[in-house]
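User: Could you walk me through two proteins back to back? I'd like the raw sequence and the structure tokens for each, with a short line separating them so I can tell where one ends and the next begins.

Assistant: Of course. Protein one, sequence then structure:
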Amino acid sequence: MSEVSGVAEQTVRWGILATGQMAAAFTADLVDLPDAEVVAVASRAEEPARAFAERFGIPRAYGDWESLAHDPDVDVVYVASPHAAHRAAAGLCLEAGRNVLCEKPFTLNLRQARELVALAREHDRFLMEAMWMYCNPLVRRLKALVEDGAIGEVRTVQADFGLAGPFPPSHRLRDPHLGGGALLDLGVYPVAFAQLLLGEPSDVTARAVLSAEGVDLQTGALLSWDGGALAQLHCSITGSTATCASVTGSQGRIDVPSGFFHPERFVLRRHGREPEEFTADPADGPRTSLRHEALEVMRALRTGETESPLVPLEGTLAVMRTLDAVRERIGVRYPGEAGGPEAGQDREPALV
């Protein structure tokens, strides 16, 4: 029994907050883990919560978030609401004494992210962003190779993520009240990938094409570091991109083909050597599996840790700081953010 988490050694009891696509994907992987038990689900309406509970065999369904947050049988809550509601949902759970795994992007802006981190530390609870890319075994192998100097000093990182669309103005990706746009939904991956390898940039430059609603349809960003490294990043909701990544160093390069944030393989090319291909272990499950982040949460809870070394809170804050900087450069403001991303006030979105 952990003094920090109150989690039993063998079984971790999960609550699921929200009932959308991400919640379903995570729960489907979670119920296959022998040491995880999904005990409750909550929505802002009782009907979708009941339907979700029946689908996955969950014993309790709540038509409000508060009941889940105060359920004493829940060890950790997975927050899968749209990101405009992350601050409210995760904050409610933390204040009620629950540990939290919160979907990415962590929040709308850095100010909200700092508030959640402060709440977790105040209540001595575990908090982690659900950046599944950081928990992926093959991505961890790539990071280790870079850190071990396999390609020398990193010079450039390139990464992109785009969806074809078109998305109508009524879609959540176009709705500023829901934190719409390419950057927060998709661009968080290229930014997080670059910062996984290089840390927080010293300078940010960005350009974007904005929709009539004021969200970014596509954004290009150039990040730079004092040591001379650059990252060229792109995201779009107007065209399906290759979703590839490449890391170039002074002594070689690593190429990650389509789906860089959950890769099946990558190729290490070192000067004077034959290319080396690294592939995912079939024992780790399908590339779309979210089990690795769930396993990391449960490992941390059992050891009494309040944050994960794979997805540290300072790293999450650093990515949010970069996303804020990009939005500042391209002129995207969400309702209540007239003074800039950090100055925005929370708006309670009408979400299920």
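----
Protein two, same layout:
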Amino acid sequence: MSVRELVVLGTASQVPTRHRNHNGYLLRWDGEGLLFDPGEGTQRQMLRAGVAAHDLNRLCVTHFHGDHSLGLAGVIQRINLDRVPHPVTAHYPASGQRFFDRLRYSTAYRETVRLTEQPVAADGVLATTPAYTLEARLLSHPVESFGYRLVEPDARRMLPDRLVAHGIAGPDVGRLQHAGELRGVRLDEVSEVRRGQRFAFVMDTRLCDGVDALAEGADLLVIESTFLDEDVQLATDHGHLTAGQAAKVAAGAGVRHLVLTHFSQRYSDPAVFERQAREAGFTGELTVARDLMRVPVPKRR
């Protein structure tokens, strides 16, 4: 069964709280699982959320601050302990290779799984599969940080009334889809473009071109909102976004569902993040993330 959803494993920023674990976000995309920014405690959160090591196909790290990467050691060892039967690929900033190496080999364990390292050195496409293209964009943070964007290829939606008008039915529909033309009828005469779904993941960053490029047209945008708007100077100084800034980005990019996360421990009322996001002009679906919640990717338009 096809499932496209975000499983939120942790939503804290640098300091976890009683109710918020360090970062961790699993995107289920049909038969694949992409784990973003596994912070400390990710293994336990996976257990609580019903996520197994076998569910993981890619590990995507935005940058090497501890709240986004200290869980890598445990996750990689768990992948090997459970003898995951398929290859796993790790993406992370190339400038942090020494940190990845230390985490991967931080303690002794037996390697049983092929873990492919594909470090990110610049903006561009990281992987292309039949189901999606995975891209990266440079962000603005005190250490090098990349955001990720997953784009499903566009397809075509058949239009029943036009098929009937041209006398095409049954197996002939499949023949037309495969060949692009049947008995003088072109595929574009009886179908329309079905836009592929788009997911974007934006963590620690100031406002920059990379944020806008990642968010553009996203069906689901997961974005940090570490600070509230009254602390915008702190956000800028430390390379972060406020709730209002994140919401303005989403509104300008035409995002359908906005997920705010990565909250500073200084704030205790999550409702304020939602209020400031609405005041900033975002009118789409909005979620202030909580640990262990599941957020479905919006259905196709």
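The CA atoms of residues 132 and 260 lie 24 Å apart.

Let me know if you want the two compared in more detail.
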